[in-house]
């Protein structure tokens, strides 16, 4: 059998913090325990917010932690054509449709919230006539393309995925996926031919990822990933969801909240062992 392959896939839109360190260390530790290897993947589909200096900084941070990985590193920004091809396969199944709703439109007509707490899209444009779709597309109206989740689930039927934990050496347990709680998710935008959901499943398959280690904040997103894997005929990895690090406010650490960076901690005299102790490893 092939050796297990895992990956750490940060977005270079800011400096890494202790939460990223936990995720990276969990991934490399898991690869060692499983007798496999860990890859580094740069998830930079947001070409506006992702910067080369952040990529250079995360390389420095990870090397400082004592981590190494095979080269070359995969950059998602170099793979837009592959993601567009995957989206076109879904479009050929009549599972992708254009949506012209603004955020305020969605907020005003939402039917609830998704697992992330965002307004749940009510499916407004799913029922638009082809003539109106063509007219608005030709007019150049702002557009994004959504997965018809109900139709997709009618194709796949009941979906399950394998989860391990609390140890990566535990026997996998079967869990049911519930994509319906996400509604019709966005898979493409006018200015970006992919989304996190679409690119991650394409790349996990391309890199033969056998085990996905991710924070519990991304556990629910697995619903959509399992659905896309089934639709696109891609292999399904085993999932391991690790705990999150919380700040003094009880919320997870994040770049947007200015959580203290690894570079700052290093400048203060922290060592890699200090980081391991701080994240509980």
From TrEMBL:
The protein's Enzyme Commission number: 6.1.1.-
GO cellular component: cytosol
Gene Ontology MF terms in the entry: ATP binding; glutamate-tRNA ligase activity
Transmembrane spans: none
Domain Glutamyl/glutaminyl-tRNA synthetase class Ib catalytic span(s) in chain numbering: 6-273
Key words of the record: Aminoacyl-tRNA synthetase, ATP-binding, Ligase, Metal-binding, Nucleotide-binding, Protein biosynthesis, Zinc
One GO BP annotation of this record: glutamyl-tRNA aminoacylation
Class of the enzyme per the UniProt entry, highest EC level: ligase
Entry keyword Aminoacyl-tRNA synthetase: yes
InterPro entries (UniProt xref): aa-tRNA-synth_I_CS, Glu/Gln-tRNA-synth, Glu/Gln-tRNA-synth_Ib_cat-dom, GluQ/Sye, Rossmann-like_a/b/a_fold
Stored PANTHER family: GLUTAMATE--TRNA LIGASE (PTHR43311), GLUTAMYL-Q TRNA(ASP) SYNTHETASE (PTHR43311:SF1)
Family from the record: Belongs to the class-I aminoacyl-tRNA synthetase family.
NCBIfam families membership: PRK05710.1-4
Name by which UniProt lists this protein: tRNA glutamyl-Q(34) synthetase GluQRS
Species whose genome carries this gene: Devosia marina
């Amino acid at each position: 059998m092939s050796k297990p392959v895992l990956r750490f896939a940060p977005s270079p839109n800011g400096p890494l913090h202790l939460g990223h360190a936990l995720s990276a260390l969990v991934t490399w530790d898991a690869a060692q325990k499983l007798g496999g290897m860990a890859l580094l993947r740069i998830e930079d589909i947001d070409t506006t917010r992702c910067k080369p200096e952040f990529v250079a900084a995360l390389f420095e941070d990870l090397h400082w932690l004592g981590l190494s990985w095979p080269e070359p590193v995969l950059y998602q920004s170099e793979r837009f054509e592959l993601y567009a091809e995957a989206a076109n396969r879904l479009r050929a199944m009549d599972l992708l449709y254009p949506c012209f709703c603004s955020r305020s439109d969605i907020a005003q007509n939402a039917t609830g919230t998704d697992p992330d707490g965002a307004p749940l899209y009510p499916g407004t444009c799913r029922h638009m006539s082809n003539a109106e779709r063509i007219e608005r597309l030709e007019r150049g109206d702002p557009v994004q393309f959504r997965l018809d989740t109900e139709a997709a689930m009618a194709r796949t039927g009941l979906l399950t995925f394998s989860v391990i934990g609390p140890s990566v050496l535990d026997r996998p347990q079967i869990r049911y996926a519930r994509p319906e709680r996400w509604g019709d998710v966005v898979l493409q935008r006018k200015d970006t031919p992919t989304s996190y959901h679409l690119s991650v499943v394409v790349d996990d398959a391309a890199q033969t990822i056998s085990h996905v280690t991710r924070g519990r904040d991304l556990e629910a997103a697995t619903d959509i990933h399992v659905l896309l894997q089934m639709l696109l005929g891609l292999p399904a990895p085993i999932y391991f969801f690790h705990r999150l690090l919380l700040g003094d406010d009880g919320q997870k650490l994040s770049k947007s909240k200015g959580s203290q960076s690894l570079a700052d901690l290093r400048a203060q005299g922290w060592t890699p062992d200090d980081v391991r102790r701080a994240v509980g490893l």
